[in-house]
Amino acid sequence: MGHTRWLNEEEKRAWSAFTNAHALLYRRIEQRLKRDFGLSGLQYEILARLGDAPNRELRMAELAGALVNSKSGLTYQIGQMEKSGWVRRRSCPSDERAVYAVLDDAGMALLERAAPGHVELVRELLFDALSPEQVRALADGLGEAGRRMTGVPGEADPVRGDCAASAEGGVAAADHPLSRREHQGPP
Amino acid sequence: MGHTRWLNEEEKRAWSAFTNAHALLYRRIEQRLKRDFGLSGLQYEILARLGDAPNRELRMAELAGALVNSKSGLTYQIGQMEKSGWVRRRSCPSDERAVYAVLDDAGMALLERAAPGHVELVRELLFDALSPEQVRALADGLGEAGRRMTGVPGEADPVRGDCAASAEGGVAAADHPLSRREHQGPP
DNA sequence: TACCGGTCGTTCAAATTGGAACATCCAGTT
DNA sequence: AACTGGATGTTCCAATTTGAACGACCGGTA
Predict the structure, then answer these.
(1) What is the Cβ-side half-sphere exposure of residue A34, based on CA atoms within 13 angstroms?
(2) Domain B27-137 - what CATH class?
(3) Using the CB atom, is residue B73 less than 7 Å from strand D?
(4) Could you say which of A107, A133, B140, B162 is the most buried, measured as most Cβ atoms within 10 Å of its Cβ?
C-alpha cells in the first residue's frame, strides 16, 4: 500500500468548505423549519420526496434509500408523521412485505406552505454565493461522486411501482404541485 | 415579498447532488471509522482539530464553533473521549470560565493511525470523481457560502489563546504531524 | 464596591438515531 | 410441495443529540 495520497492545499480547502458549508446550511434550515412549521429537516425531506413521487407515495425502502437514512430511523419518523396526520401507511396486496408511505392531504398542504421559505433560504444561503459555473461544477462533480457511491452502472430500470395505487377516492396521478419551474434565463 | 425564486433545473441538480453526496460520504466515513477505530465521525473531527491546533488544545466554545455542533453535544463527547484517555480537560487560571480540551498522547497516536485511511477514503470517494476545476469551484464557492453564513466581515482577530499553555512536560509547540503536504503538481 | 449584561461550560429531560435481532414474505430450486 | 437465499419492515436498546435552564464568571460601569 502506497504512502497515503494526502490532500493538497486546494483539496483541503475544498473538503473543509464542503463539510463546513453543509453543516452550517443544514443547521440553519433545520432551525427555521422547526421554528416555522415544527418540522425537522428529515421530515421536510420526507414530505418533499413523497410530494413529487408518482402517486405521492413511496415504499419505505425506496424512501430510506433516497434519504440515505437507516430503515429503523425511517420507521420511527413515518410513525411520528402518521400521528401528526401528514402521512399514512398503505400495504400492497401483490407484495405483502411492502409498505407504502403515502402523503396525506394535510401533509401536502404543509409541504406547500413550507417549501417557499425553504427554497428561498437555500437560495439565499447557498446559490446567491455561487456563480453559474460553480453551480454547474457542484451539480456535475458531486453528482458524479454520488453516483459512484451508490453504484449506478447502467441505469438498471427501477421496476418500482409494481403495486400501483388503484381504487382510491378521486385524485389519480395529479401533477406535482411543487415542481414549478421558473426560468431564470441564463445570459 | 416576491413569489419565491424557485430553483432552476441546474440548481436542483446541484442541491440534490450536494446533500446526497454529503450524506453518502459521511455515512461511509463514519462506518469505516467506527469499524476500524471505534471512532464516530465527530470524535475523529475533534481529534483532527485538536491535532493541528497550536498546543493541541482548544477552548470548548472554539471547538464547538469549528465543528458546528452544540455546546452540550461537545461537552458530552469530550466526556466520552476523556474516559477513553484521548483527551484531557484543562482550565485556564486567567479566565475561570474557560475550559480547554487538550489532546493527549494516546489521542494523538490514534489520530495518526486513523488519518491515512480517512484521507484515502475521502480522496477515493470524492476527489477521484472531481476535476481540478471542480475542486476549485467547491473550495471557492462553498468557501464563500460558508463565510457568509458565519458572518466574517473583516477578519476580526480571534484573540484566542490568551491563556497560553506554559509549563507542561516537555513538548512545546511541535509542528503539526498530520499537516504534510504532497504536491500533486497541476499541469 | 456592588451591579449588569453577556459569555462559558455543564446539567437535564426529551427526542432521535442506528445497528442487530426478528418474523414475514417472495422467488427460484429441488 | 418443501427448501433456501434474499428482501422487508418493525422492534428493541443503547448511544447520541438538542435546546432550555442553570450557576459561575468576566468586564465595564455607577
Answers:
(1) 9
(2) mainly alpha
(3) yes
(4) A107
Q: What percent of chain B has pLDDT over 90?
A: 76
Chain B residue at shortest CA distance from A138: B14
Which residues of the protein are close to the nucleic strand C, CB under 7 angstroms?
A: A 40, 42, 69-73, 76-77, 80, 94-97; B 30-31, 59-61, 64, 71-72, 74-76, 78-79, 89, 97-99
Q: Residue A62, Cα to own-chain centre: how many angstroms?
A: 11
Contacts B180 to A, Cβ<8 Å:
6
Write out the H or E segment, with its range, that includes residue A22. Answer: helix A9-37
Quote the minimal CA–CA distance from B3 to chain A in Å.
8
CATH domain A21-144 topology? Arc Repressor Mutant, subunit A (1.10.10)
C-alpha span between B87 and B103 (Å, rounded)? 5
pLDDT tens string A37-93: 999 999 999 999 999 999 999 999 999 999 999 999 999 999 999 999 999 999 988
Residue B157 has pLDDT above 50, yes or no: no
Cell reading at A167? 381504487
Q: Where are the domains of chain B?
A: 27-137
